Amino acid sequence: MKKRTIYITNYDMKRLEELIESCLYRDANREKQKMLNLLLGRLSRSETVLWKEINPNVVTMNSTVRLKKLDDNEKSEYSLVFPEDANLRRNKITILSYLGISLLGRKVNDVIKVRDQEGTQRAVINSILYQPEANGRCH
Questions:
Q1: Is the pLDDT of residue 4 over 90?
Q2: What is the pLDDT of residue 27?
Q3: Which residue has the higher pLDDT, 138 or 9?
Q4: Nearest to 42, CA basis, from 106, 121, 118
Q5: CA torsion angle for 76, 91, 80, 63 (degrees, to 10)?
Q6: 3 state SS of 91
Q7: What band does 32 get if pLDDT is binned at 50, 70 and 90?
Q8: Cβ distance 78 to 103 under 8 Å?
Q9: In the chain, alpha helices (H)
Q10: Cα(96)–Cα(136) distance, rounded to whole angstroms?
Q11: Could you state, in order of their start, the residue ranges of all structural domains in the chain?
Q12: What is d(CA 81, CA 87) in angstroms, rounded to the nearest whole number?
């Protein structure tokens, strides 16, 4: 199976590297450390592009996406945010989660793995409802 290229904006890359660095030297518990290592791996395998040049069908930080699970066609919407902005009740998921890391840099129609209470499922990114860069914003 061919690996897809993961695209991350230069601005997101800078902020994510700062997040990882600050967490590594603070109170990173075992689960958070695991997420930081997964995120670090994702960043190391990614291609950095200028924020003004990112394709509008790529998930960036602060994007809102619509997913559809492949096993039951259940649809859901999530916004990918930094940990301080996470709010599960409002479907704002942190980048320091399996779903957050899976979404980062992926494109519309990519299939990702989603881990939840039922285990691991596959979902397709149906659409990006909002991408800051496509709206001229660099958060």
A1: no
A2: 63
A3: 9
A4: 106
A5: 70
A6: coil
A7: confident
A8: yes
A9: 10-24, 30-44, 98-103
A10: 25
A11: 6-135
A12: 9
User: Where do we find the tokens 């061919």?
Assistant: 2
**90-98 contacts at long range (C-beta below 8 A, 24 or more positions apart):** 95/16, 95/19, 95/39, 95/61, 96/19, 96/23, 96/32, 96/35, 96/36, 96/39, 97/35, 98/35, 98/38
Q: How far apart (Å, rounded) are the C-alpha atoms in residues 65 and 60?
A: 10
Q: Of 38, 93, 31, which is closest to residue 64 (Cα–Cα)?
A: 93
Length of the chain: 139
Return the residue matching tokens 């989660």.
97
Instruction: Assign 119 to helix, strand or coil.
Output: strand
Q: Are 132 and 65 spatial neighbours (Cβ–Cβ below 8 Å)? A: no
Which CATH architecture is the domain 6-135 placed in? Roll (3.10)
Quick check: 123 pLDDT over 70?
Answer: yes
Q: Two tokens at 10?
A: 């230069």
The rounded mean pLDDT for the chain is 90
